[in-house]
Amino acid sequence: MEKTTVIGAGLAGSEAAWQLAQRGIPVKLMEMRPESRSPAHHTDFFAELVCSNSLGGDTETTPGGILKRELRKLGSLIMDCADGASVPAGKALAVDRDRFACTVTERIKDHPLIEVVAEEVKAIPDGPVIMATGPLTAEPLALELAKITGQSSLFFYDAAAPLVLTDTIDMSIAYRKDRYSEEEGGDYINCPMTEEQYIAFYEALMSAERAPRHDFERKIPYFESCMPVEALAERGLHTLRFGPLKPVGLEHPVTDKRFFAVVQLRQDNSEGTVYNMVGFQTNLRWGEQERVFRLIPGLEKVEFVRKGVMHRNIYVNAPEVLDRSLKVKGRENLRLAGQITGVEGYVESVAMGLVASLAFAAELSGRPLPKWPRETALGSLLYRLGDDTVKKFQPTNVNLGIFPKLNVKIKEKPERCRAVSEIADKAMEAYLLEDHWIVSDLTG
Ligand code: FAD
How confident is the model at residue 259, as a pLDDT? Predict the structure, then answer.
């Protein structure tokens, strides 16, 4: 069987290499670390999570939960490792990032059909290739992709939130509670603010010095769901209170007091020694982050494990560049996978690794390409990537808007999502019964 090259051992590339190898297809997995590293990667582990340790909602009343269920049914390596490294996070799936990435790395390196090559790829190799080099693809290969796709490669910005040491949070001010929960304790640590404290924090945030952006970078838009906290604050004094600092459902567990705003922190490693400032991705200068974020009650003496950062992000204009199996139009042997295809998010990137690899696996074994039902989360993401009626293509995450419309009107969002989830699950189950090959080779 012809060897397939997978470029990039990130979330999508690791999943893709594993799925191919599990179907008997030999893989050459090329990863540039440790030789060189993007500014967001800090380790040499495969599938490193570059920012939050949360993989998002994991119930059937969230679109992310529907996608995760499908990936589990399809034998996803990444979901398996994530489940094995999970840490408490309410109804979301969060992981101990090192344990998670370390397990992925071991399982890939131990696979007899995967050859790992530590090398930066600068040109697309011959033979079947899956390019899964992510939003921070090294420059020479990014330029090569731009040449192949013409004007269709786009750039935008993403940001990462700071991490802090848990035992430096002042728990005489902060308290544990999950939103709307009646139970004592909770997975989240909450830092409450009075109106006066909020305004002082807001003013400091607005006047804080930011890291410089080059001229050409200023024209690049932020992605809405990963907007720096200071950019969100620019929209108005109260915007943060209706977003990441929303106080509703976070009344004090002892006094029942409702605060003006609440900053939430989520556990980031299994020991619980590091917490992540939820929604605080930022482009402030590092010294300014210390000054401004220590104005938050409970964080006055907090120690930062990692400061927030901002990075370039690359994706293609999917409707123009890719077919429904993620093949680059006009290039028989090249598929893209992961965030570069125009999806946004960890789990969405994994999903696109799975789709690209199963398409190649089918092609190389002389079988028909998988036809993911439109009702499923996988099918809906692919539908969105192929939707050429969209005027200005923007990366998409899994959300209710990408699924087919329901025949009935359901007002409440969780119930609407549950209805979508049932339809998606039936469609996926029916498809898997029809196409046994998709899951039949998953041993090991
Ligand atoms: P990656 O996981 O980045 O993997 C790409 C791999 O390719 C890397 O290992 C890299 O070293 C390698 N590589 C790159 N170029 C080459 C080359 N030329 N040759 C060989 N190897 C190469 N999503 C979320 O859901 N939550 C978040 O909190 C979040 N935060 C983000 C923060 C930042 C700063 C960025 C940039 C993105 C963030 N995302 C987040 C978006 C996205 O989910 C992640 O970037 C995700 O890791 C994408 O998966 P991927 O497999 O496509 O790419």
Answer: 98
